[in-house]
Amino acid sequence: xxxxxxxxxxxxxxxxxxxxxxxxxxxxxxxxxxxxxxxxxxxxxxxxxxxxxxxxxxxxxxxxxxxxxxxxxxxxxxxxxxxxxxxxxxxxxxxxxxxxxxxxxxxxxxxxxxxxxxxxxxxxxxxxxxxxxxxxxxxxxxxxxxxxxxxxxxxxxxxxxxxxxxxxxxxxxxxxxxxxxxxxxxxxxxxxxxxxxxxxxxxxxxxxxxxxxxxxxxxxxxxxxxxxxxxxxxxxxxxxxxxxxxxxxxxxxxxxxxxxxxxxxxxxxxxxxxxxxxxxxxxxxxxxxxxxxxxxxxxxxxxxxxxxxxxxxxxxxxxxxxxxxxxxxxxxxxxxxxxxxxxxxxxxxxxxxxxxxxxxxxxxxxxxxxxxxxxxxxxxxxxxxxxxxxxxxxxxxxxxxxxxxxxxxxxxxxxxxxxxxxxxxxxxxxxxxxxxxxxxxxxxxxxxxxxxxxxxxxxxxxxxxxxxxxxxxxxxxxxxxxxxxxxxxxxxxxxxxxxx
Length: 500
Fold this sequence. Notes:
Alpha-D-Glucose-1,6-Bisphosphate, Chain A, domain 3; TATA-Binding Protein; 21 strands; 20% strand; A-D-PHexomutase_a/b/a-I; isomerase; intramolecular phosphotransferase activity; magnesium; metal-binding
C-alpha cells in the first residue's frame, strides 16, 4: 500500500525520498498550490493522483481524464508523478503535453474526457506548482470536491483499481488553435498587437494565434524562461502592465495583450499605453456583446467595478448582472448555472458561454473578443471605447501578506468589525456605511458609491484588497486608508505587494 502522506519532511534526508510529503495548506478553495519541493515532493504528487482517481470513482464519473503541464522547470516531472498515481487509481489518462490550462479544458470536449488535471501554478512565482482539476466539464472543483480530495489524500484512503491507461496525444496544440481560429470572425482591418507572455507558457501559443488572425504581432517576453526574469506572467501585476504599456507606445501598436502563466487570463493596454483593469475591459465587452446578443446576462466577481450595475448603456438594454464569489471555479459554475453569456473577473479570468465559447476561462479567446470589439468599431480606437465608460477611480488588486493559517480568521474579524461599525452608525473614510456584501469576504460601500473589498486569497498566503470610487481619486485614497486602518488592527497582516 502507498504510504500515508506526511505534512512535513526535511529535504535531503532518506525520509524525504522514501515518503510522500503533502502540506495540508496546498489544498485551496478550488485548486491546489504548493511550493515545490518545500511543501510537496514527487511521492506527494503520486498521492495526489491516487486521491484524485479515488475521488473520480467515488463521484461516479467515467474515469477518462486529460492532463497537461505548464512551462516550468519541474512541471513535466510533477505531471508524470501525478499520472502514475492516477493510473494506479484506475484513470485512463490522455496526456496533451505542454499546454495552457484552457487547452486542457478544451481537451475535455475534443477528446471526450469528463475529467481534467492541469499541472500549473498559474501566475504564482517560480517555485510554486499546483493542479487545476475537474470532473464535470466545463467546471472545475469547488470547496466541496477540494475538501473531500484533501480528506482522501491526507488520510491515505486510496482505492487502487485496474484499468488505468496512458495515451500521449501528439500535436494537440494545433487542434486547439484551429478551433479558436474557426470560432473567430475574420478581422476587417490589420491590427498591430503587442503580445506579452512574461516568459511563460503562453509564449508558445499566443503569438502564433494572433498572427493567424491577421494581426501584426509585436512579441514581448515570449521566450521560454521559467525563472520569469522580468516579472511574473500576471496581467494584474503592474510591472507586467507597465512593460506592455512601454512597448505599445514605442511601437505604435493598436493594443497590448498580456497573458498569464497558464494562459487562462488576458490583460489589456490601450494604444496610448494606458493599462485598463480587467473589470473595465469586462464592461466594454459587456456593452459590445449585449449589442450582438439581446437579453444578455453576465456574472462578475465581487472585486469588480460597480459599473456593471450602474452603466447607463447596460441599464438601457436591460442587461442583468450577478455579482458572485471571486475565483475561477465559482464564476465558471455560476455562469453555467445561470446560463449567462459571459462571466468577468477583475483578475482577468473571462468565461464565454455559448455561442461565443464553451463556458471555461481562456485568455486567448478573451484576446479574440477584444480584437473583434475593436473590429466592430472601425471608427474608434481602444482609448475612445474606454473613455465612453462613466468615470470611476479604481485600484489594482492589492495583496498584503497573511499566512494561510491566519487569513480566513483575519477576514472574519474584519467583516465583524465593519458590521459593528455599520450597526453603530460609525463613518468609514469620512462617510456613512450604506451596504455590506459578505458573499465572499466583505465589500463595504458608502452613500456616494465608494466601496472597499477585503477577502482571503484562494491560492496564496495573502489577503486581497480592492477599492473604487465614482467620485474622485481623493475619495479612492480615503477609502483605502480607512480599510487599511481596519486591517492593521490585525498584526497578522503584512506588507502589500503593490498599493495605489
